[in-house]
């Protein structure tokens, strides 16, 4: 009579390896998705803070966040304003958004971008 104590079947080893590979793939996808969600949330928060700063500094301009899109690291933010925003005001919004993104993912703002999973850049579009 043979004893089979301590033996693991080849099927069990293969199944365990397959489950490990699937878990690693899912974890890597979830990690990149989490950073992007954090970045987009930070971009929206930075936009709202910046537009509030500009709207309440005595200009009498009504400024509202309208839309945000993302493509290959480029974040395009559309804001509505009663009066057309100046170049400096649009740069102020852009700077606040980049600072917010940098703080959220723990990276430095270098020039006009934040390096994370992508090189995040920001474009502000003003509609009146």
From TrEMBL:
Sorted UniProt keywords: Membrane, Transmembrane, Transmembrane helix
Transmembrane domains' residue ranges = 12-31
Q: What is this protein called?
A: Class III signal peptide-containing protein
Originating organism: Methanothermobacter tenebrarum
């Amino acid at each position: 009579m043979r004893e089979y104590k301590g033996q693991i079947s080849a099927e069990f080893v293969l199944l365990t390896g397959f489950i490990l590979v699937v878990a690693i793939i899912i974890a890597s996808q979830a990690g990149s998705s989490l950073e992007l969600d954090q970045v987009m949330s930070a971009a929206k928060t930075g936009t709202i803070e910046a537009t509030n700063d500009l709207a309440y500094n005595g200009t009498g301009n009504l400024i509202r966040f309208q839309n945000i899109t993302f493509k290959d690291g480029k974040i395009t933010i559309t804001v509505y304003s009663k009066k057309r925003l100046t170049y400096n005001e649009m740069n102020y919004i852009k700077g606040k958004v980049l600072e917010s993104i940098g703080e959220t993912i723990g990276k430095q703002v270098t020039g006009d971008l934040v390096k994370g999973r992508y090189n995040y850049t920001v474009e502000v579009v003003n509609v009146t």
